[in-house]
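Usage

Read records sequentially. Each one opens with the input sequence:
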Amino acid sequence: MNALDNRPFLKMNGIGNSIIVLDLRDTDIAVRPDDARAIGRAPGLLYDQLMVIHDACGNGADGRMKIFNIDGSLSGACGNGTRCVAWVMLRGSSETRLMLESDAGLLECRRVGAWRFSVDMGAPRLNWQDIPLAGKPGDTLEVILPDPLAAAAELPSFTAVSMGNPHAVFFVDDPDAYDLAATGTAVEHHRLFPERVNTSLVRVDDRGHLTAKVWERGAGATLACGSAACAIVVAAVRRGLTGRKAVVALPGGDLDIEWRESDGHVIMTGDVQLEFEGRFDPDIFAVAPA
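and closes with the structure output:
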């Protein structure tokens, strides 16, 4: 018997980023990587991120998040998933603000509409040690990928950013001109990234609009990635391509991003949707390795 048998869950999405929210507050249940993989294999439960809510450890937070990719690996940040968690935790409440603990730090969430939330994703990390990159490539503003595999050979220099998870942002003329799966896989597993990396192919449309496709480490091609959208705007500002406020158009929809000058924090705003609620069938975990 698995502790997750018959546990309730919510299937949601943040502008197409497929999310499962599992509320384990007031329990001592811990999700294992095998559990995360088993859930993703179940019919109708394919996801990009599994957001697990636990009781807060402290810091005046309202809850603590553990974020799994579908391959069972952990992610330090997921902006779209964080907005879904905020909706779940504020559902039926008159409150409009909450604080969430994550591996990326303490995140403030605000409800700005019935299905629209803003998340303070914190300050980006721009030093090579913090992203992290292997070796000492120098300034992370324009990094040449050393010895790229064939699928990534035509890529320009990238800007490296950590938003609690590592991102490589490539500014290109046309994101559709690249095979995202081949390119993303080649970059994700390149030796320059000891913790793998999220890869964004970005076109600058004007000073306030960017169009992107994203390959997420541990998840693959996704309709949307909130932390990537944040990293994209940070990279664009650092390169002088946009102002500090910009809209990032992803295949699943748009995210409003602001890299706030006052404190250096990145604010992400976007919509969420509830697709359905259910309970985990015990058969899901019966086939999961012990």
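Summary fields computed downstream for this record:
- The mean pLDDT is 94.
- The helical segments are 33-41, 79-90, 180-188, 226-238, 282-286.
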